[in-house]
């Protein structure tokens, strides 16, 4: 039996996982906390020197709540950093429901697991034989993820989050229609009309 998890709205359901131990680099960082929004496929990832409830709480606060609002559901595996009383009581206050999924059951918490594999593969590709400083390459890997269309949505996570495609370096070098036709006055007027329609 396959369970499909779907978020009813953007940033309402996040899957979260830990990657590591990775080669230790600057600041003794050897772990990676990864969170994935189930609807937009937006990824937040942060290198860590150690993993505990304290780091998980700080990550959720800074990378999810302060940027995207309070989610309804947080899906994690049964790792000790996700099972403690501090995290449980902290999640109860804003009424965030925590679901635990078995690390052996990928369909249930598949989004973070798949994303972790992609991040690790892209880091290995960028670093090659040199184990190097994976922390420096992480932002480039996340950029590539956010600007690449996903099979499940046929959209980029960037577009699903911000409602527009990102202007890529290639768009500036070989000016695309979008870059050539940019007019700040017309753009401002258009945005005002959009906001008037929202009200």
From TrEMBL:
Gene3D superfamilies: Ribonuclease H-like superfamily/Ribonuclease H. Residues 6-165 form the Integrase catalytic domain. One of its GO terms (molecular function) is nucleic acid binding. GO terms for biological process: DNA integration. Transmembrane segments: none annotated. PANTHER family: PROTEIN CBG26694, PROTEIN NYNRIN-LIKE. This is Gag-Pol polyprotein. It comes from Sesamum calycinum.
